[in-house]
Design goal:
Blueprint lengths: L9 E2 L19 E7 L6 H9 L6 E7 L6 H7 L6 E4 L5 H9 L6 E4 L5 E2 L3 H11 L5 E9 L4 E6 L21 E3 H6 L12 H11 L4 E12 L5 H22 L5 H34 L1
Parallel strand pairs: 2-3, 2-5, 3-4, 7-10
Antiparallel strand pairs: 1-8, 5-9, 6-10, 7-8, 7-9
């Protein structure tokens, strides 16, 4: 976990090894997904297709673009009849774009997907049925695939069961796999804190937790996180990122811990992750051998 390039790239395929199992949605709830975008013409069409190809019956998908000039607008117009709407105007950054987009939605289940990431096939049906079958759960998330600019897989993170305490020390919830109920969104103020430009997802998760949300980790790959040279995650983590993460740790713990303290606290969780990762690798090998038989 934390390693972004784990092995040589190979094509990402729609396989049962990666996807959530196919389920019949007994009582579909409206799912609202928003995508904040700026100058992402290279990737956004693939992001859009990963959402609309789910063919979920009650999907509300809105894209908030920050006034891109790289061809993004032409792509959004191309898909305008397949999405709920889009807007391309100057905004105050990613957090503001997410808030603007969510203000135009009404779904009971919510998520945001960045304009370079992907949903895995079957995710929305599974998410909807999981929430229907578990009415006490407020927030869910799953495992993460890592992909490169060409949609080739270069890594994977398999997460152990949800750990409430670990979130005070580190954010081990992959944002592109995160879904929540509107009731918990409304309870924490119905907005992303625009004071954060890097760790806004961790801030939201901590606010959910502080509001008493019930979390569940789903043991399937719900989304794919793209690694590329121009992404914000890589470029700002050593500047804004560290400041914002320390700000959240100070809020949760009452002080800013040292790197050594953080390592000690997260070590048991990392050990569980390693074990789950080994089990997944063995399962993948077994499935691969069965296909060859």
């Amino acid at each position: 976990m934390g390693v972004l390039n784990q092995y040589a790239p190979f094509p990402l395929v729609n396989s049962a090894i990666y996807m959530a199992p196919k389920v019949e949605v007994r009582s579909p709830s409206k799912i609202s997904i928003v995508t904040p975008s700026f100058q992402q013409a290279s990737f956004i069409e693939r992001t859009i297709n990963s959402v609309i190809s789910q063919q979920y019956p009650l999907l509300e998908y809105y894209i908030q673009d920050g006034g891109s000039t790289d061809g993004t607008l032409e792509i959004l117009e191309k898909y305008s009849h397949l999405i709920s709407g889009f807007e391309s105007i100057t905004d105050r950054g990613q957090s503001n774009a997410i808030n603007l987009a969510f203000s135009r939605t009404s779904g009971e289940i919510m998520a945001w997907l960045n304009s370079d990431d992907l949903l895995m096939p079957g995710t929305l049906n599974y998410v909807a049925e999981y929430f229907h079958s578990n009415p006490g759960i407020d927030v869910i998330y799953g495992n993460r695939l890592l992909i490169d600019e060409n949609d080739h897989q270069i890594g994977h993170w398999v997460f152990p069961k949800h750990d409430q305490n670990i979130l005070k020390w580190a954010d081990f919830i992959p944002q592109e796999t995160l879904f929540w109920r509107r009731r918990i969104w409304d309870k924490v103020g119905a907005k992303i804190d625009e004071g954060f430009s890097f760790a806004m997802d961790w801030d939201l998760i901590l606010r959910f937790q502080e509001a008493g949300a019930k979390f569940s980790r789903i043991p399937y790959f719900l989304g794919a996180f793209r690694i590329h040279t121009k992404q914000k995650t890589s470029s700002v983590i050593n500047e804004v990122g560290i400041y914002e993460m320390n700000k959240l740790r100070a809020r949760s713990l009452g002080y800013i811990p040292t790197a050594e303290e953080i390592d000690i606290e997260i070590k048991p969780y990392i050990k569980k992750h390693i074990l789950f990762n080994i089990k997944y690798t063995l399962y993948k090998k077994i499935m691969g051998l069965r296909r060859k038989c």
